[in-house]
Amino acid sequence: ARQYLVPRQTTENGLKDDQFAITDGAIREIIDGYTRESGVRQLERTIGSVARGVAKNVAVGKTKSAEVTENELEDYLGAKKYFSEVALRTQVPGVATGLAWTPVGGDILFIEASVSRGSGRLILTGQLGDVMKESAQAALSYVKANADDLGIPHDAFRYWDLHVHVPAGAVPKDGPSAGVTMLSALVSIYTQRCVKHTLAMTGEITLRGLVLPVGGIKEKVLAAKRSGIKRVILPEKNRKDVEEINKDVRKGLRVSYVKRMDEVLGLALSSKSKADPAEFFKVKDEDRNHSGGRDTPIAATVIN
Q1: N or C: which end of the chain has fewer CB within 10 A?
Q2: 85-283 maps to CATH 3.30.230.10
Q3: Which CATH number is associated with domain 4-77?
Q4: Beta bridge partners of residue 201, listed in sequence order
Q5: Which residues are known catalytic residues?
């Protein structure tokens, strides 16, 4: 950008080299907050918008030159279009960070799970596509089948409703790659163990707990690095995809490869619980008789 785009937009907008400059921080902020594309076309247009703003100020005598910093971008471009979700990362039970592929590159996404007294319903929200809904249902089936090994009381499924939400509800989401993230969020809420907030993951799951490879690994790894993630969990069969990424690009990012969900949970979950699951999901005898707890699975309720 600095070698080609900035000089070209400087010339095209009638400025001299000593009249317009833009800092590296401002260029990064344009990429993260205004463009987020796989190429550079929109980046060049946006740099051009900044250059035109400087040219206008020079023409009216407001300034003779300008070096635009990231803190001044809104004066030229208005409010940011994209916001990093890093600030939303929080270490509470039921929240896990995933990695997503989009047409304009990789991104991080959050899976949120919460429970409330009910009758065993599964509620899905966040504009989820059919494949993503099935991933949530598969994750819940795995958790139920392995409840004893995970230390989850069976009352948690009979007398409590589970709500799974993926934020940015106006944006449609689909695909199988959030499977490991959904399962981690579910185990987290049911065991009251937090998922480490400096960690992100991607991968498809099976009912047997296998972790299958997914696409868009390069974009996802770059998104993790950009978002300040310290460690990513990826399917073992995606190892070759990571090896194709320049080492300098992924420097400082720890990559763990897994074949099974128990490996994911061992890496992702904190060792201590925020609460004892047996006490957290405890149901009084009189409530058992009136709450309508179910022994058999029921269909998910999807609210888009």
Answers
A1: C
A2: yes
A3: 1.10.8.60
A4: 98, 233
A5: 177, 220
